[in-house]
Amino acid sequence: MTDSPQTLRAVVAVDLSEELCQLVERLEPRLEVVRDHSFYRPMRGPADWSGDPSVTRTPEQQAAFDELVDSADVLFGLPDIDPASLARTVAANPRLRWVHATAAGGGGQVKAAGLDQDALERIVFTTSAGVHGGTLAEFALFGVLAGAKDLPRLQQQQAAKQWTDRWEMRQLDEMTVLIVGLGGIGKAAAAKFSALGATVLGTTRSGEAVEGVDRLVPIDELASAVSEADAIVVTLPGTDATTGLLSAEVLANVKPGVIVSNVGRGTVIDESALLEALDDGRVGFAALDVFEVEPLPAESPLWSHPNVLVSPHTAALSSAEEPRIAKLFAENARRLLDGEPLKNVVDIVEFY
């Protein structure tokens, strides 16, 4: 970027605490961090950026909030995490040049706003990808270990107060783990699995080496690579290109008893095909934090399947998320002001 401004008017569009607003100001003094905490829907828990839906604004407050948002050079967060509100302010504010989404999958929110090509080229959109890497990698590891140590059997026997003969559990340092997606989450997962002695394979489009990954697998060779894996960890975002990537065709090739752990997006796995593979034993265990439809419908067989662990999209939640995102925003503001490339820029073709 060239001809960068000396200051930026950064409007906070979500409930970022005053402490963290001040942190952003200290980290990048050239930002004018504009906020009015009386406008925001308060968080109900850590990183609840959309806020309490029961809190509403009067028409006068909404008009004042819109006026504030429309005065921005840059936005911290989509207003109310609402794609329609983003579309409204983009149309109203020709000076807007950068929007930072608080979600790691913020590209999907930008896509949902239905912006025209001129707006997508005028404004840089960034996401908070990477801030959840450690927490999601831990859940992925937990899911694989739960399968390797036969958690369902242990729970069943404990509930029945049944002391059986001993059996051999799988050992992580004797397993091959295939990580599908080597972005921020995938890299963090690779480091953890590698540290515990697993052989790590990872899918790639770029072909760039990743620390902790023993062998890179071209994404178009996924269907053959799964036959080598004792566990498959999915970390990919939800895009048109990733929808149904773990298909019936891919799952037909898995090593019998494979463990599946999904911490990316639920749409990456064909759930019908996964259920068939669970029922016939090709998949021995699945730990799922994300689903095709959320909340997971009550009628979904996944709820009651004996070899499925259901987590309600909560594995990423951490009180450390908010300061991490604030620091990422400040760093990207510095980059913008200094004419450097920003981190986590949304691909405006595939929206990730």
UniProtKB/TrEMBL annotation:
Q: What is this protein called?
A: D-2-hydroxyacid dehydrogenase
GO MF annotation: an example: NAD binding
State the InterPro entries in the record: D-isomer_DH_NAD-bd (IPR006140), NAD(P)-bd_dom_sf (IPR036291)
Which keywords has UniProt assigned to this entry? Answer: NAD, Oxidoreductase
Which Pfam families does the record associate with it?
2-Hacid_dh_C (PF02826)
Protein species of origin: Pseudoclavibacter terrae
Show where the D-isomer specific 2-hydroxyacid dehydrogenase NAD-binding domain sits: 144-315
